[in-house]
Inverse folding.
């Protein structure tokens, strides 16, 4: 069951990051990481070839109220985004009764491999389960995107099924792997630690 979440007044802090709503002041940071070839393509959109493209995207992020800016504390800049979107599980017979959101994320190539995105995703999962009352999260990655697969697996998601994603901007169909994390699964994990 899709529920609306407005991130515009939510701030989530981790050891190295602050997740907060995008503002107009984030334009140059957004363009900086979105204009690098290979970053957007891993998420189904072409890298930004102009600051005007980033400006349109930033406006859409702010209007949607469902996407966090991933702010790096030490470097004092936005290095990525993390969105809470409508989930594929809403259409799946086995899961459609759950309060569920899809997590989608992008991070600057300069910050790949530092464990920052798992840190952000885990914080959002914790907030979603414990503050928002969500019952599940889903996430997916294109089959060739091994970095994203590692993030998803580090965060405790379980593989659910393969699918096809058609990217209009890239004009191609891409095989994607769909994962789910249930709140009970997360709670069981906590109980087995003690």
């Amino acid at each position: 069951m899709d529920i609306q979440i407005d991130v515009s007044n939510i701030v989530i802090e981790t050891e190295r990051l602050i997740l907060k709503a995008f503002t107009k002041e984030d334009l140059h940071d957004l363009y900086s990481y979105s204009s690098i070839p290979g970053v957007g393509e891993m998420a189904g959109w072409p890298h930004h070839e102009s600051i005007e493209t980033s400006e349109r995207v930033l406006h859409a992020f702010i209007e949607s109220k469902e996407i966090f800016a991933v702010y790096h504390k030490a470097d004092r800049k936005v290095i990525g985004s993390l969105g809470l979107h409508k989930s594929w599980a809403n259409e799946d017979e086995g899961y459609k009764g759950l309060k569920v959101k899809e997590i989608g994320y992008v991070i600057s190539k300069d910050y790949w491999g530092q464990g920052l995105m798992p840190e952000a995703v885990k914080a959002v999962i914790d907030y979603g389960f414990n503050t928002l009352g969500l019952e599940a999260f889903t996430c997916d990655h294109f089959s060739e995107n091994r970095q994203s697969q590692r993030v998803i697996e580090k965060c405790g998601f379980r593989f659910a099924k393969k699918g096809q994603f058609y990217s209009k901007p890239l004009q191609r169909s891409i095989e994607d792997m769909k994962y789910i994390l249930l709140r009970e699964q997360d709670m069981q994990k906590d109980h087995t630690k003690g």
Observations:
- The CA atoms of residues 186 and 192 lie 10 Å apart.
- The first helix runs from residue 27 to 34.
- Residues 7-193 form a domain with the Aminopeptidase fold (CATH 3.40.630.30).
